[in-house]
Amino acid sequence: MKTFSTSRGDFGLTRFPEDSRDQLRAWDASDEYLLRHLEDREPSGTLVLLGDRWGALATALAAHRPVQISDSYLAQSATRANLARNRTAAEAAGVALLTTQDAPPDRIDVLLVRIPKSLALLEDQLQRLAPGLHADTLVVGTGMVTEIHTSTLKLFERIVGPTRTSLAVKKARLIFCTPDPARTGAPVTEPWPRTYTLPTGIGAMSGRPVVNHAGIFCAERLDIGTRFFLQHLPRPRGRARVVDLGCGNGVVGTAVAVAHPQAEVVFTDESFQAVASAEATFRANVGRDVEAAFLAGDALSGVERESADLVLNNPPFHTHRALTDRTAWRMFTGARAALRPGGELWVVGNRHLGYHVRLRRLFGTCETVASNPKFVVLRAVKPA
Ligand SMILES: C[S@@+](CC[C@H](N)C(=O)[O-])C[C@H]1O[C@@H](n2cnc3c(N)ncnc32)[C@H](O)[C@@H]1O
């Protein structure tokens, strides 16, 4: 564990799930810069923290009873653990942990924004928070230089009010924004969630609608790996329990429910926006009589051992390689535990990622169901 030293105290912080091999800190220079900026401006009134990655800001500012708003189950879990480790039970209980899907406070006096990776998520959240801002709300954003673009500043300008940036310090920058009631009170023209229609030639979901909340994976169009997966999905038998693991907008699990209405589908993702999208996609395509569950969790943390017949997974990629490798491994080991003997894990992935090696190590066997020059669909069976 590493120590985050601030003028408000020293805090031992970890990411979630805690991993002793993890050399990455649970905060960065942008958190440090923001806290230094607040040293001579003690926040008062309702303090909202948007996008606090691992709870470093919530832990340091716990005495102000902040409201943390996060899209991530992992971030929320890290915040809980960091608060429990560094704060008294009463201080920790004073921090409200909301998801991006919860109603935000009606009145916000201080808004601190750790710039999220997704511009769409920032747009959506600023639009949701704007009605609670008033002319005297202190609004400060923070992020690494590489995360703050002209488009980021334009969003603050458009939704909140006049915006300027600080000098860069240790490659971090602050954003200062003065709320303009004419902008914060303006109606939202293109609200999230947004729906698109799927192409034809992809099996059960051909030509069907898919609903996307802001910031989720492939919110604007179908991913080519997912497309390949949809063309090669298994046919579960009878009342099979199927898990759409890392469900995103739920297109994979909904395809199973449309083709096999007697199956029960569990949708799970670490993004609250994704879980809400999956539920909306499912409701837009499947009748109320089909059984389904929608869970936010880390990999299969919300699914009981040996309760599933089939797990379908398009593991995350793109972000930090070592981290996403670990996530894929957690998903595969979680799937092995969640499957009944004889149950199957089906995975789609880029060929070069070499998932078959891991699956063979875990399950003993791994078969290629389909492949094209870019992707493979793999099947691993839990030994009986
Ligand atoms: C490549 S996307 C696949 C989304 C969807 N299944 C599809 O094919 O369009 C991977 C998904 O895994 C989710 N994810 C990332 N880390 C996770 C974790 N630790 N536990 C559960 N889901 C996670 C992401 O939020 C994302 O929705």
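^ S-adenosylmethionine complex. The radius of gyration is 22 Å. The first helix runs from residue 29 to 37.
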